[in-house]
Amino acid sequence: MTPVPVNFGVMGSSRVFSGIQPTADSFHLGNYLGAVKQWVNLQEGHDAVYCVVDMHAITMGHDPKVLRNRIRVAAAQMIGAGIDPERSILFAQSQVPEHAELAWVLNCITGFGEASRMTQFKDKSAKEGTDAASVGLFTYPMLMAADILLYQTNEVPVGEDQRQHLELSRNLAQRFNHRFGKTFVVPEPVIPPGAAKITDLQEPTRKMSKSSSSPQGIIDLLDEPGPLKKKINRAVTDAETEVRFDEENKPGVSNLLRIYSALTGDSADDIAGRYGNSGYGPFKKDLIEVVTDTLTPIRERTVKLLDDTDALDKILADGSARARAIAGKTMESVRDHVGFPPLP
What we know:
Elements: E1 14-20, H1 29-42, E2 46-52, H2 64-81, E3 89-92, H3 98-107, H4 112-116, H5 119-128, H6 135-138, H7 140-149, E4 155-157, H8 163-180, E5 188-190, H9 225-233, H10 251-264, H11 268-275, H12 280-306, H13 309-338
Parallel strand pairs: 1-2, 2-3, 4-5
């Protein structure tokens, strides 16, 4: 088993964990600005553990060949965006069997009513009907709790849509500790400064999402400059000409300002002040340049990584070995506290 680096887990450091599903051929800009970019920053001053949560990706049905490719694409994009597998632990969830083992234990201390109140299950099963929803989708939050608790995580960067699941993780950690003895760190939610909620370019009152946005409403991290330019030029604005941040009356322009601000670090009001009433043309032209300058290096690094899948697979294998060094110790304690015999 590959040893965890000597600078990982130093006294006083806080551990952060997060994961992303490999359910598309590219992350979108909302994934990057709301999550991955923040994870890159959290590598400073934290023990960072990042996971491609491929076990979560099979709850709604999948094509095995497509999934295998998307796991690599997800990992390559994370590295391309700045996740350093030497400084952080980066791995695929399915390569660490302790995730499934702990999830079963947590299933057994979760009430049925408690699990059925999870809004994500209710929302997704409502679309297809409860009979079509898998048991895996129902128990998804307990697997997510296992993902977090395995690594004795102190902080979990989280958006509003995952807050309920993190609260369940906290409850299960406290419940297990109370029933069986102190085992888990109780994780805290954090919203990293600078995390931006990006909305659909065509329907700016809705979150940018692979499952509900149209292709023209999404900026993909791996978009070439041509399609990227078209998407921003066609982004919905309004009948006015003034560039200003006004969520209620100008949601489209406000979303574009949010993107510009998140990529440059300038405030939305300062950016808006540069354009005033000069119309949306100059504003969009400059935004295209900002987005292209940011995404092109990420796309190029990702493509280069995907050109050598053996090397990429080795990065994930090394990451999973480092993850198991931590997860295995947690499960030793869990087995002992629950009353299971030690592994032979």
